[in-house]
Specification:
By secondary structure, this protein is of the alpha+beta class. The chain folds into 2 domains: 6-278, Butyryl-CoA Dehydrogenase, subunit A, domain 2; 281-468, Up-down Bundle (Butyryl-CoA Dehydrogenase, subunit A, domain 3). The protein contains 16 helices and 14 strands. It has helices at 6-12, 37-51, 81-98, 104-122, 126-140, 281-315, 323-348, 362-374, 376-387, 390-393, 397-400, 403-412, 421-435, 438-448, 454-464, 467-478, and strands at residues 19-22, 25-27, 60-63, 68-71, 144-147, 169-174, 177-184, 195-198, 213-218, 224-229, 255-266, 270-273, 351-352, 358-359. The strands form 4 sheets. The protein has a 6-stranded mixed sheet, with no helix packed on it. The radius of gyration is 24 Å and the shape is globular. 49% of the residues are buried.
């Protein structure tokens, strides 16, 4: 059962009883809660894509660890150039349709490399434990919640110097395991996962060794609490409004604040325990692999905006005839293609880590992501410009469903004869959700802060770029000894 179908995934959630809260209230049944429905749908669609025999070799791949097909996006440890290029292609395709591709295989792969390094440096036995954990995940087809980002508190201070520590840390070491306390932010899809995996998010000093911790526990382990933020759509069912984030959609999921309230982790699930000198490794590997995927992901988001922009022009009766519309859409195409090219280029220039994981070139990945991030605001502005003011002033879906009002709207809001008024409004509602709604803020957050903030892109490129070599070349040409 290495690849679950969507229905099997939904059924599998019933075996877990995580402590999930939504809007201040405890959620009893994750799989049927109305404000978690989109998240469950989203995860289920990913399962169906991997389970479809027609997608074998793309969405699913044979795992050498268990000799079974597994989800490429969800569970595969990426060990080749082919893995990186296929994964980037799928990420662009999925993100251009459903906003997020659920790239948990990235997280599992960078952790694989980090834990290998710890064992090599310290003679520990974490790597065999982690490999067994990955095998279990792959055999069961279970999903993970990824806990990487610490709250950080006062960011001018390291975690050990905080007056009120917030970051995840070891509070007790026992012969059979450890006890941890603290929090992790941005736990995407956490409420609909089976396991939670925690890793450090930054380089730590020797005084911070208790914060150098990595482990995995079932999502319903005692003391694990997930405070879920509803996805940015309406809290009611809709037919026309919010097509991406309505309750019955399958396009986007919830984020969680994950609390570890004196959680016991058994020894076999501990993958790092105080090895502070190795914490610098995971952010570096993450900077390459996940940001390579993020280039493709943001290219997919831009593809979606391009399609909406062209359709908006058409329902307004303009097509893509006017030069300013053509130019705007062409600029968006250039940005999407540049970001995707960087995803592929970073893969092509990648190298194999001693653990077997294949890591893309971090400078190319970060440069591409920095570029596509920098133009998202411009692209959203293009949507407004092409749509016109109606994108923020049109009547609501409830008005359209009122027969008395609808006849007036039919008369007042007609556009191109190629489309009915309802079709025009449906396109406007999609554009509104992308460029003028709560989802807009989520999309900005996905683009600007997911995979690390923009300044981290610049730091990686600056650190990886061989400036001294270029200076020496300039000296040589200039005749300077």
């Amino acid at each position: 059962m290495a690849v679950l179908t969507g229905d099997e995934y939904r059924e599998s959630l019933k075996a877990f009883s995580p402590e999930v809260y939504m809007r201040g209230e405890r959620v009893d049944k994750v799989w049927e809660h109305p404000l978690l429905r989109q998240t469950v749908n989203h995860m289920a669609i990913g399962c169906d894509l991997a389970a479809d025999p027609a997608n074998r070799g793309t969405f699913s791949v044979r795992s050498p660890l268990v000799d079974e097909d597994v989800s490429r996006i969800g569970h595969h440890i990426q060990t080749s150039l082919e893995d990186l290029t296929i994964k980037a292609k799928l990420t662009r395709e999925v993100s251009g349709r459903r906003i997020c591709a659920q790239c948990m295989s990235n997280m599992l792969s960078v952790t694989w490399a980090m834990i290998y390094d710890i064992d090599q440096a310290h003679g520990t036995d974490y790597f065999p434990r982690y490999r067994e954990f990955i095998k279990t995940l792959q055999r069961k087809g279970h999903g993970i919640a990824w806990g990487m980002m610490d709250p950080k508190g006062d960011r001018s201070l390291p975690p050990s110097k905080q007056r009120r520590p917030t970051d995840l840390r070891i509070t007790e070491r026992r012969p059979d395991g450890i006890v941890v306390r603290g929090a992790k932010l941005h736990t995407t899809y956490g409420a609909a996962a089976h396991e939670v995996v925690a890793v450090p998010c930054r380089a730590l000093g020797e005084d911070d060794k208790d914060f150098a911790v990595s482990f995995a526990v079932p999502i319903d382990t005692k003391g694990v609490k997930l405070i879920a933020r509803p996805s940015p759509g309406p809290s009611r069912e809709t037919d026309m409004e919010s097509p991406l984030s309505s309750q019955s959609s399958q396009f986007i999921g919830v984020e969680c604040l994950t609390i570890f309230d004196d959680v016991f982790v058994p020894e076999e699930r501990v993958f790092m325990c105080g090895e502070w000198d190795q914490t610098v490794k995971l952010p570096f590997y993450f900077a390459g692999l996940h940001r390579q995927s993020k280039c493709a992901c943001s290219a997919g988001h831009t593809d979606l905006l391009i399609g909406v922009a062209a359709l908006l022009a058409d329902v307004n009766g303009l097509g893509t005839g006017p030069s300013h519309i053509r130019d705007k859409i062409t600029d968006m195409m250039m940005a999407a293609t540049t970001a995707y090219g960087c995803a592929m280029g970073a893969a092509q220039e990648g190298t194999a880590h001693p653990s077997g994981v294949y890591l893309p070139d971090p400078a190319i990945a970060n440069a591409g992501l920095n570029h596509i991030r920098s133009v998202l605001g411009t692209h959203l502005g293009h949507i407004h410009d092409i749509a016109g003011g109606l994108i923020v002033t049109m009547p609501t879906e409830a008005d359209w469903k009122n027969p008395e009002l609808r006849k007036h709207m039919e008369e007042a809001l007609a556009g191109s004869d190629k489309y009915t008024v309802e079709e025009r409004l449906r396109v406007m509602h999609l554009a509104q959700e992308l460029a003028a709604s709560r989802l807009t803020g989520t999309l900005l957050g996905f683009t600007i802060n997911a995979a690390g903030s923009p300044v981290t892109n610049r730091i990686v490129v600056r650190n990886q770029y061989d400036l001294e070599e270029k200076i020496e070349i300039a000296k040589e040409i200039s005749g300077i000894a």
